[in-house]
Amino acid sequence: MALLPVKFDLKKRVKLAQTVWFMYWFAVLAGVLVLSMGLFFKIELRKRSELMDNNESHFLPNLLILMGLIACSINVFGGKVCYDSLDPDKFAKWKPMLKTYLVFCVGFNALLLVTAVLCFLMRIPMQFTLAEGLRNGMRYYKDTDTPGRCYMKRTLDLMQIEFRCCGNDNYRDWFEIQWVSNRYLDFSSKEVKDRIGSNVDGQYLMDGVPFSCCNPSSPRPCIQAQMTNNTAHYSYDHYTEDLNVWKRGCRDALLFYYGGMMNTIGALVILVTMLEASVTVGMQYVHSSLCNLANPEDPESESEGWLLEKTVKETFTDIMDKMKSMGKGIKVEEGEPVVETVS
Amino acid sequence: MPFMPVKFNLQRRVKLAQGLWMLYWFSVIAGILIFSLGIFFKIELRKRSEMMDNNESHLVPNLLILVGLLACGLNAFGGKVCHDSLDPIKFSKWKPMLKTYLLLCCGFNVLLVLVSLLCFLMQFSVYLTLAEGLSYAIRFYKDTDTPGRCFMKRTLDMTQIEFHCCGNNNFRDWFEVQWISNRYLDMSNDVVKDRVLSNVEGKYLMDSVPFSCCNPGSPRPCIQHHLTNNSAHYDYDHRTEELNIWTRGCLEALFSYYSSLMSSIGVFVLFAIILESVDMAGLKYLSTALETMAEPENPECESEGWLLEKGVKETFSDLLTKLKTLGRTNQVEGGDAPEANT
């Protein structure tokens, strides 16, 4: 008993082949889409790799690029087969390969599903990479004269402006590190000496933030220095002031951005998986209907197409038997030389 | 003597019709591009209309949108005519309209030339509008509590950050206006009172700039206040310091952005004019080739196509004579009436 059998006459077969060919071309476009999403994600990771300590994992975008390329090629092949399927001579060329091709497609679909799941899960390692990278980024903010770190200040400033965030968790992170380079500190000044002497590490700490934390929407000019000192500024209360600097931390902002991107890519990959599954099903019907012509010489004869030749249980037991016989074949080969020597 | 005649047989006619049909579809795409460029330009002007005192002229983008739509329509019609030209029955439907259509296309080309000229000339108007608008913007920077101007601060800050510029011509423009609202000035403070009294208009002026003038590429944290006072900061010389704040003025930055946009649109419209002219010439050849078939019943006969039926001079003098006779008929009609009355 075949699984989901459908009767086909010539007209239905032609319609099926045309529809499946059309769907294969959509699937090629979908493959190109997956490839471009992988490239886009890779570029976005590279753009901000300084903030992730050059330590970010490129596994997911590389996988997406590979999946996109494979999807394009197998869908182009499938489209070609569908196009030739109505001509018995051309189709006879492709017939022997179709069974392996369909098995390969099923495997590829499973891989696509795994990729989609990964897109949603990779958020977690990204969180840790970002947290550590940003912490280091802030520590190296002042090192504009150290080769390899001289652009950290600019990168961090541009990122805080673009993503509307300040510090790692919030703006107070800037109070805990020295973000002014020693080259611009007057060590003969009493104030500077006091501040440096006031903590164990000898760092020049202050309750100020860089200008890139400023919020342009604030009605008053930005207060960057002496932020926790209410008397230093007229009509200012740092407990209630919430428009002066950005309140959000950069780790949250970047995670939201990358997380959103990965969620979208994951959703699109799921849609592409569904499209691929449907074209595989369509191809299976095309293949089975053309293989079962009642009268092989007459193209207008009726035929029957199905999803699986036997029911699910029987197909499964068949596969298990095949694998067992393959296993036994290997064992017999090993056992044979023993028999020969005895007799 | 026809102007630039070319002999056609059936194959050449078919090739011409097919090539022309494809060219008309390219022209439709070019029309769509002009339309979208017009919309993009309109959006860009609207986005920064606050910087231009809401006074900017939308003539060029509106013209571009109109011209884009016209181009699409005319070229789609031309493509349809080409598609039908090889079938005598369908073509006879379009034949009478072709002369008017070609005249329309001529007029449309003249309009395109005008639009392209405007794209280059209106840059002056944009420059003047920007200069005025930016000076108002800097003056209204502090009015974050005045309805209608409360977003000027944010807009100007974002513009300075985005376009990497400071002030109108340079950062010193900020020294001449009060950019801190009175609400945040402690009027009982002596320093504040001194500053306010130190100038005729009673403004709180200082040698500082807003944070949006800061250059993130500077190796040292941004120095915004006491910019001209070297002793206020360690190891600072305001005459040699270049990376601290943006040195470019926003007028120059915004103008170079808009002028490059307008110049590119102008160049693209010129390209569209060339494309349209080629279309017109091709259609003229096709229609004359189909009209002058030696044997109308036999589609495979030879024919001749041309650009103008007589030479350029003769066509021109013909046109002039036509215009004169039109003028004379009016005069005669005017003369007839008094005769009829008498």
From TrEMBL, chain A:
It comes from the Eukaryota. Pfam families: Tetraspanin. It is found in: Membrane. The chain crosses the membrane at residues 20-41, 62-81, 101-121, 255-275. InterPro entries: Peripherin/rom-1, Peripherin/rom-1_CS, Peripherin_LEL, Tetraspanin/Peripherin, Tetraspanin_EC2_sf. It is a multi-pass membrane protein. Its main location: membrane. Keywords: Cell adhesion, Disulfide bond, Glycoprotein, Membrane, Transmembrane, Transmembrane helix. One of its GO terms (cellular component) is plasma membrane. One of its GO terms (biological process) is cell adhesion. Belongs to the PRPH2/ROM1 family. This is Peripherin-2. It comes from Haplochromis burtoni (Burton's mouthbrooder).
From TrEMBL, chain B:
The chain crosses the membrane at residues 21-43, 63-81, 101-124, 255-275. Keywords: Cell adhesion, Disulfide bond, Glycoprotein, Membrane, Transmembrane, Transmembrane helix. InterPro entries: Peripherin/rom-1 (IPR000830), Peripherin/rom-1_CS (IPR018498), Peripherin_LEL (IPR042026), Tetraspanin/Peripherin (IPR018499), Tetraspanin_EC2_sf (IPR008952). GO terms for biological process: cell adhesion; visual perception. It is a multi-pass membrane protein. Its main location: membrane. It is found in: Membrane. One of its GO terms (cellular component) is plasma membrane. The keyword Transmembrane applies. Pfam families: Tetraspanin. Belongs to the PRPH2/ROM1 family. This is Peripherin-2. It comes from Haplochromis burtoni. The lineage of its organism: Eukaryota, Metazoa, Chordata, Craniata, Vertebrata.
